[in-house]
């Protein structure tokens, strides 16, 4: 018997790095996993690498229409979700004084807006006792030169975890944030 036998999981940003490793581990522990990625070739390669009990859905977390399509697919194919790993995100280096509105919007749209609406749109598919895991970052508590916008988004993620744990307490849905250090992945 495995820890996740019979569970249905979603890993956003599941085509590389922590997301891909998590999706592989979830499958190894018995879960059926949906993964997302923005680029279809990378998504197809990740599905092939995982090998079984996985569905890839092309989705950009910052686009609400993509999230609607994602959750419609999950509902039609499995009916519910037991675990969400909201992992999709990214950031680029920009020193204070060189930060542009485009840089700010891109980073906040994916890391904050995308994460918020991923979780919110998943709520109807989550049974009581489900688990939500948010990928924050060590930069949310430790300064990093030229990474202030990214760091601010990850601080927001940690704040979401603290608040959503209270919002979802009555449903016994666990909300946790992880804060890993640097993980080199393709951009």
Task: Report on this structure.
There is one protein chain. By secondary structure, the protein is α/β, with parallel strands linked by helices. The protein has a single domain, classed as Rossmann fold. The protein is built from five helices and six strands, in the order E-H-E-H-E-H-E-H-E-H-E. A six-stranded parallel beta sheet has the order 3-2-1-4-5-6, with helices on both faces. Helix 3 runs parallel beside helix 4 (101-122) and helix 4 runs parallel beside helix 5 (148-167). The N and C termini lie far apart (37 Å).
What is shown here, in short?
This protein has 187 residues and is α/β, with parallel strands linked by helices.
How is the secondary structure organized here?
Elements: E1 8-11, H1 17-28, E2 32-37, H2 40-50, E3 54-58, H3 64-77, E4 83-86, H4 101-122, E5 131-135, H5 148-167, E6 174-178
Parallel strand pairs: 1-2, 1-4, 2-3, 4-5, 5-6
Q: Which strand-content bin applies to the residues?
A: 15-25%
The radius of gyration computed from the alpha-carbon positions, rounded to a whole number of angstroms, is: 16 Å
Helix/sheet category = alpha/beta
The helix content, as a percent range, equals 40-55%
Largest sheet: 6 strands, parallel
- Would you tell me the overall average pLDDT? 96
| Backbone shape | globular
Which spans of ≥5 residues are poorly predicted at pLDDT below 50? none
């Amino acid at each position: 018997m495995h820890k996740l036998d019979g569970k249905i999981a979603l890993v956003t940003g599941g085509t590389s790095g922590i997301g891909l490793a998590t999706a592989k581990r979830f499958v190894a522990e018995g879960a059926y996993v949906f993964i997302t990625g923005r680029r279809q070739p990378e998504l197809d390669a990740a599905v092939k690498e995982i090998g079984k009990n996985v569905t890839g859905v092309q989705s950009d977390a910052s686009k609400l229409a993509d999230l609607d399509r994602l959750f419609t697919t999950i509902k039609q194919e499995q009916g519910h979700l037991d675990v969400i790993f909201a992992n999709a995100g990214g950031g680029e280096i920009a020193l204070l004084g060189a930060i542009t509105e485009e840089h700010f919007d891109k980073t906040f749209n994916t890391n904050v807006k995308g994460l918020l609406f991923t979780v919110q749109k998943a709520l109807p598919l989550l049974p009581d006792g489900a688990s939500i895991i948010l990928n924050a970052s060590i930069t949310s508590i430790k300064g990093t030169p030229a990474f202030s916008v990214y760091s601010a988004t990850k601080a927001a993620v940690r704040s979401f975890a603290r608040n959503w744990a209270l919002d979802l307490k009555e449903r016994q849905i666990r909300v946790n944030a992880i804060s890993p250090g640097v993980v080199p992945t393709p951009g």
